[in-house]
Amino acid sequence: MTESLEARVRRLERERDEADRRYNDALTQLDGAVPRPAALPDPPLPVDDHQLATLNQAWNILEKPPAAAGIRQKIATIIWRILSPYLQRQLTFNSALVDHINRNVEATRAAHRKEVEAAAALRAQTEAVAGFHGRLIIYLQQITAYVDTKDRQSSGGSLVLNAAISNVAEGHAKYRESLEAREQRYESQTRAIAAAQEELRGMMGIAQQAITALKRAVAELQLTTPAAPPALAAANTARATLTPPAFAPSLDAYKYVGFEDQFRGSQEVIRARQASYVPFFERGRSPGERGSITGDVLDIGCGRGEFIDLLKARGIPARGIDLNHEMVQVCRDRGLTVVEADAVGYLVTQPDASLGGIFAAQVVEHLEPSYLLRLLDLSFEKLQPAGTLVLETLNPACWTAFFESYIRDITHRWPLHPETLKYLVTASGFTRVTIEFRSPVAAESRLRRITVPENADLALKDVAETLNANVDALNARMFTHMDYAVVAEK
Description:
Layout: H1 5-33, H2 52-58, H3 71-224, H4 230-242, H5 253-264, H6 267-274, H7 278-282, E1 297-300, H8 306-313, E2 318-322, H9 325-333, E3 338-340, H10 343-348, E4 355-361, H11 369-382, E5 383-394, H12 399-406, H13 418-427, E6 432-440, H14 458-478, E7 481-489
Parallel strand pairs: 1-2, 1-4, 2-3, 4-5
Antiparallel strand pairs: 5-7, 6-7
Helix pairs in contact: 1-3, 6-8
């Protein structure tokens, strides 16, 4: 509810009166707390030196007896010889004592002068502080009257100012109401657009299903056509013989197992690297929820079965396939469900919409383009709705990955740029497709920028800036991420 102008004026007056009361209370407390000048003691009395002249004259007690004649002289000489050593010691003591007293008298006189000066300065400072406190109280008492005169001077325009403030507040309230209405309309439009996008995504999925059905019908039609002439059949057979398989088995199986161990990393390293992919296959697996994903996750090219171990540890059913007989045997010996088969041949035998996810790490770069396209089409057909496809591969856009890793493996067939693989996955029917870059090149392996002192000349700074720009450009090409993964959802 908007406050009226009269009510606002009364409220401001109450606030002013309350502020005046608090000010007067504080001023009273300050006046009562002003310290009064303390009674300072007088400096000590000066040193008592009225006996000093007598001591300086009487300290020498060692004087020979006056000369005499006869036996008296002899007796006096004997007595003097006996007493003079003791009198000499007393004389030495008297001399040291008198010297000590004279020295301390001078020091005591100097100290007394300092004490007199300090007492005078302290008394003057105390009086100055007391005077300042008095003038401060007088000043604070005058502030109230001064502010009152200013308040009376401005009181004539206070009503006009309050009215203007009220108008501004009312305008601001109306503006806020307008913004809230616009925001509600915007949210409504956003929800409508999101609903339209979901509807369009569903229509695209239906269209993709229709395209898949047409492809299947064409394939069946080709199988039912009459046999080709013998010469044409022979040519087709020869062409098929020359076409290399998806994975050329030119390496002995046990050799490639050793290659994996040496260059790709141990099972612990691969398991740690692939652990971050597990959450993608946990989505949509709410127990008992209608339409939730229940099918197995298929690990294509499972190798030693590291990712299958990770999925089983999270309660996600998983199986794998691999062409390498030795690796399949290693997985089976550990109790994993792994089949020795190629990806396309295996997926053709699976029912449509039967798999909960498909995972392939460092596999697609081994495939011929035609085989890869067929694999992507089959992956879309065999995945359940909302099923996830994850394809990890080397990043050829990173020169370090290409020259250090890609060309090292002689079974690699085709480097796939991240945008290329994303497009192929999207063209196969997947509507939610993203790229995640993995394994960044270590900072110490990248080119380093240079720094110049602040006081360097402009020419040197320009050279350093140009060089650093070139370093950044090279790092963006050569030293980015070694791997990437295309993550798609059906």
